[in-house]
Design a protein that fits this description.
The chain is of the alpha/beta class. The chain has helices at residues 19-38, 54-62, 67-84, 98-113, 197-205, 213-224, 268-286, 316-331, 367-373, 376-385, 397-426, 439-460, 464-485, 487-493, 495-516, 521-531; strands spanning 3-8, 43-49, 91-94, 117-127, 132-133, 139-142, 151-152, 169-173, 181-191, 230-231, 233-234, 265-266, 305-312, 343-347, 350-352, 355-356, 393-395.
Length: 537
Amino acid sequence: MSRILITSALPYINGIKHLGTLAGSMLPADVYARFQRARGRETLYICATDEHGTPTELAATAVGLDSATFCSLDHEVQARLGAAFGLSWDHFGRSSSPQNRALTQQFAQQLWEAGFLEERVTQQVYSRAAKRFLPDRYVIGTCPHCGYEAARGDQCENCTRVLDPADLKNPRSAVSGSTDIEIRDSKHLFLRQRLFAERLRGWIESKKGDWPLLVTSIALKWLDEGLQDRGITRDLEWGVPVNAVDWGANPQGARPDVEGLAGKVFYVWFDAPIEYIGATWEWADANPGEGGWERWWRAPEADDVTYVQFMGKDNVPFHTVGFPTTLMGVNEGANSPWKLVDQLKGFNWLDYYGGKFSTSQKRGVFMDHALELLPADYWRWWIITNAPEGSDATFTWEQFQTQVNADLADVLGNFVNRICKFAETRFEGRVPEGGTPGDLERRLEVDVAAKLTELTTLMEAREFRKSATALRQLWVLGNQYLTEAAPWTALKTDRDRAAVVVRYGLDLVALFARVSAPMIPNAAAAISEALGVTTDA
């Protein structure tokens, strides 16, 4: 039986996450992890805060803290909110960890020595007003491809094309709005992605029909438009330092220009995906009895591991091109290669009344506010039943209220309440004996078995909206059975018949709690506790 390794896109350290972040990565990953654990499979769900980059530096400065302290405090907040939402991470790490720093520097060294890194002098945006280079995402302007006027220097949010700041038309500082900027030379290291274009294409093509069309189409679009080499260093203070690497010689016998690279750090999009491995190392260090971390990531020990990633569509290019290129380069000639992703589940956007959720603009519903209003399971259920899989989805308060009431209260809650209250008042709160199941029970068994098979198949395929629909239909079977069997009527003339219905009804309650636990774990646990059983999810 395969072991299951699960990662969800790392939430950025700067700011409390909104429902869109939950919908696009962390919550589906949690539901899938809980499901796999309930199936008895050895499962490891890894996540972490993405802590490097300019936004961190600016946010820390704004509140009068150094970047390390700011990240430590924010990590605690995100870990607490994730736990409150029931996210069952086996480990919630930090991309600034010593483990990730060591791995990032090791990978860079190996890529250089294999000939896959190259030094280049680049033109970068320099703010004369701020007297500093502006990192990519803090230069905004008009996208040269689609004309979007608020494109960032690293990626256009509108067309998802990866950019360089120098590509932008009418560039300006995203910090001050100043156009008093100029282009200056700066030396950087580039990952020679173009060398891997055909290898990547073959790998991605092999995933067609296995990965969602959303994922393969985005990845192949990148390749069709011509894969570009990518700079993996930046002029920043907060990050993994470049000059701490123990550089060897490349195939031409050259070593990096240490002086020219002084003071630079690795680009956040280089070190952040490596943190999936780094966080697993962190987990292993915190759990020395679990057998180590490399058995999840490196052949041959990891040959029985199925690696599943969850992310929003904006992260797809970095995980189908950038990170795989890093691993392919490091794996070149390696005796114990690192594992590439097996299954990649990508999601569209969850919008807020037709517009995007936005952390920077404080638009939408955020995790802390959501939990102040209602229990986590309400939000979990709505998000999974409306997961933006085939297309974008939209949150509205009106739909949220209607759907949660209709599903959790009127269907599941109604069934559990009816049968449990009847058992308590008419059978002293005990599972009654006596009676023989009839045609109605036999038909129920067939229907429930079929629906369980459908639910299991959909969950294995990571079809979350359809899974939620199948689960709700399972709950409906219970209500239909109870209405048709009418134990309150049977009790008047045939107590044994009523006892059969109550037994079947209570069995359904226990079953519903168990199979609902991946999506609504707190409600499932409360139901199970009332029955004296466990959900183990």
